[in-house]
Write a structure and sequence with these properties.
The structure is a single chain. By secondary structure, the protein is mostly beta strands. The chain folds into 2 domains: about 30 residues, no CATH class; about 170 residues, Leucine-rich repeat, LRR (right-handed beta-alpha superhelix). It has 2 helices and 13 strands. The chain has a 5-stranded parallel sheet, with no helix packed on it. The protein has a 3-stranded mixed sheet with strand order 1-2-4, with no helix packed on it. It has a 3-stranded parallel sheet with strand order 10-12-13, with no helix packed on it. The chain starts with a helix and ends with a strand. The relative contact order is 0.09. The mean pLDDT is about 85.
């Protein structure tokens, strides 16, 4: 396989490359040491299959949001009846808003928002559940300090059976109707003065204001 230096010589002094030279150029372009690395691509999300204990989980994928994204648009990753669901999302620092229904009806186990997030839109994580081959559901929500607005039904998950505790950051000033309609919740910690009367938190849960 010809080196870059060899290829440069093909176009010097008015030389006319041959067909053999053309194929050499293509071979060089796809040289294993010169492929574009995945980490160098910053403008698209990374979507990969989930592997657990060396076993490919055929119905599950993981999504990583690139670092230059500030907003995830409405229903960007909403489940649409495919034979796979998102079970893991890695959010980038710099993200400021997650739009309405962005991850609706997926099967994300742990939702951890980045420190830069300010707004979680209407139904952004509504209906997290296994819709394909099981009964597993949402396990944990970790919200960042700096978050301000959580819109209606943002985390409404009627099928949740695992998650029991929720901490609402001190910076949150608005929680929409049924934003936390999660029947398995047992304890909620919230900033003093935050109105949770319509948040959908089960009546059996203990709400502690800080």
């Amino acid at each position: 396989m010809k080196t870059k230096q060899d290829l440069k010589l093909l176009f010097e002094n008015g030389d006319k490359p041959t067909q053999e030279d053309f194929w050499a150029l293509l071979d060089s372009y796809w040289h294993k040491d010169e492929k574009i690395s995945e980490t160098s691509i910053g403008s698209v999300e990374k979507v990969i299959p989930v592997i657990t204990d060396g076993v490919l989980a055929g119905h599950s994928i993981s999504v990583s949001i690139p670092e230059n994204i500030k907003k995830i648009k409405q229903v960007a990753f909403q489940y649409s009846g495919m034979n796979y669901q998102i079970i893991e999302v890695n959010f980038n620092e710099g993200l400021e808003e997650i739009g309405p229904g962005a991850f609706g009806s997926q099967n994300i186990k742990k939702i951890k928002t980045p420190s830069t997030l300010k707004v979680i839109g209407y139904g952004a994580f509504n209906g997290q559940a296994n819709l394909i081959n099981g009964s597993d559901s949402l396990e944990e929500i970790i919200l960042n300090e700096g978050l301000i607005t959580i819109e209606a039904t943002a985390f409404q998950c009627f099928g949740a059976t695992i998650i029991e505790d929720l901490y609402i950051p001190s910076t949150v000033t608005s929680v929409g109707q049924n934003a936390f309609a999660i029947p398995s919740l047992k304890t909620v910690s919230a900033p003093a003065g935050l109105d949770l009367s319509n948040a959908g938190i089960p009546a059996t849960a203990t709400i502690t204001y800080r």
